[in-house]
């Protein structure tokens, strides 16, 4: 069906043709009817909110106790959580404190270790400085660490000194070695000398294992006479060298023990047969001319303590002897005992005193080699019949045990060594 459109005039005309409607009621009745309807509408609107409010109150009455219980539980949980949080926080703080302390300790240790490593690195990267420092330390401590090699008067308190002539391993030199034993007035010095032979440790000292001598001894103290009785197969006539060594050893025994004569026997029979000397019934040392001059022998290497070995030389004065000590004796495997660059003047003073004045250009330092050089000088001076030596114009006042401001007494004996217990 096709929709038709009406104009305003058509609508007006249509409405005017409709029948008229008329309400004959009184207007007051109409208004009253309207008010009555309006009152019912209002009553219905008030009843629904009232019912809702009553339901809400009932629900609140039921829920309030549960809400209060739930609130208390919630409060407790909150407090518990707070306590746990506080405890956890305290533990965390304590752990953090411990951790911080450990970190500080670790940092401190690392710093110290780093410092040590740095120091070591510096030392390792400066070997020359380290060596120089060690040299300085060694020079400063030599007085306390270095000991004299000879025997002096102060060593003899309650002691007896015994000196043995011991060949070196090459049979080139006779080395005087001195040991200290306890004094024993009930025994003669020779008896102590004979008993101590077996305690010597020549091999350990770098010398020939020469003692005890293969012989029986009889000592006549009253006549200062010693009898030496050797076995038939004794080793002292194998060559001229072995015979010469025995001669030097016997000469040393005579000098150190105040013996005037030595009788020789073979298994109770008078005389000993030697390949070079023939048969000898007694030993009479040859008259020795010249003086003993001391040099260094290093049988255990250059870093070991040297032996001071005497060589007999014909020299006119102590000055010549000291000058000779500045030169090596290669034919005897001996080294100079006075440094070549040390120059001095000597002056012999009455009453057995020797004065040695060093030149200004001579460097005298407190070290071990200088200590041993002084001992070689003192031993040589002793053989020239000096009792004391005064060293002047040195760069230091003390070398080892020696006080250079005082006169130095010559030693009692050379090359002190210790015996095994």
Helix-strand category: alpha+beta
Low-confidence stretches: 40-48, 80-92, 121-125, 137-144
Fraction of residues in helix: 40-55%
Number of strands: 17
Portion in strands = 15-25%
Instruction: Calculate the terminal CA-CA distance, rounded to whole Å.
Output: 151 Å
Question: TL;DR of this structure?
Answer:
By secondary structure, this protein is α+β, with helices and mostly antiparallel strands. The protein contains 8 helices and 17 strands.
Question: How does this structure look, described?
Answer:
The chain is of the alpha+beta class and about 425 residues long. It is about 40% helix and about 20% strand. The chain is built from eight helices and 17 strands. The chain has helices at about 10-15, 25-125, 125-145, 190-195, 200-205, 240-255, 320-325, 370-385; strands spanning about 160-165, 175-180, 215-220, 225-230, 260-265, 270, 270-275, 280, 280-285, 290-295, 305-315, 345-350, 355-360, 390, 400, 400-405, 410. The strands form six sheets. Strands 3, 4, 5, 6 and 9 form a five-stranded mixed sheet that branches. A four-stranded mixed sheet has the order 12-13-14-17, with helices on one face. A hairpin with a 2-residue loop joins β5 (about 260-265) and β6 (about 270). The longest helix is centred in the first third of the chain and has 98 residues, at about 25-125. It starts with 7 loop residues before the first helix and ends in a 12-residue tail after the last strand. Mean pLDDT is about 80; it is low at about 40-50, about 80-90, about 120-125 and about 135-145.
